[in-house]
Amino acid sequence: MIGQILIALAAGAASAVMFASTKSGVMMSLVLALCAPVPLMVAGIAWGRLCAAIAGLVATLGVLAIFGFERGLAFALSATLPAWWLGHLVLLGRTTTAPSGQDTVEWYPAGNILLWIAVITALIVAFAFGTDMSATNQELRRLLGRVLANTVTPDVVDIPRLVEFLIFMAPLLAAMMTTTVLALNVVIAAKITAISGRLMRPWPRLRDTKLPLMTLPALFAIIAFCFPDGLVGMLARIAAAALLTAYALTGLAVLHTLTLPMRTRPLWLGLAYAMLVTFIWPIPMLAMTALGLADAAFDLRHRFGPRRPPPLPVP
User: Fold this and answer.
1) What is the pTM of this model?
2) Which residues have CB under 8 Å from 5's CB, separation 6+?
3) Residue 53, Cα to own-chain centre: how many angstroms?
């Protein structure tokens, strides 16, 4: 027990320091801050929920001491609680009886974890933008107005219209980025835990990740509420952006599966990932989202993926 407490203290301190590194103003500190939930997730996956809870409390108190109540609350909602819950889901399993009569453990599917990531993202971004929408928009108008006034020529670009477009897109981009970062954090934490030898479940093949069947009709229902202005429309757009990003991630899984028989597979995958990290990222992002939605509707991986060999006959 003493050992777990020490590990929790170390994980919490590491997470708080990673988040507080943004005070330095260095670009690399932003990457560290985005990965701040990773130590908390590693504590939860490797040593259990209690260890993750203690680590999260230590990290939150550290951020409170450095930045004050507002940033500490934001850290607790965006890093501590998601890290604790996602670490819990990774270890979630139930005992089932196989047809042979042997008890096996059915682990929580990776696709369900991805759906939870989208739900958590929607809640985080909705809290950030929806608690005081008018005040948030006014602050964004002032900030974007100052930035664009120094970088864009008014004769070429209609700055007020561009500002309004960026304000409209800000929560959607935040939902897309948060979904992607949280998913990467879970994978990184699981890989670190596996390397340490403390991963207590077999890690699934990520190329087999599928969102639950009811996600697609739920997405269409949410899209129906995206068109009105005001708070309801914004919340629906945030939820839709998070779910569509989850489908884009499953689209990457589809791409990994469909390219398995190809000799040029590294070239295609490398090209796809390279395009996703360049300024033309919306184009491959839309393509991956369409691929993920098509797989959800038509099961492309089963129809066009590599055929698995039939099972060997039982003597």
Assistant:
1) 0.91
2) 54
3) 20
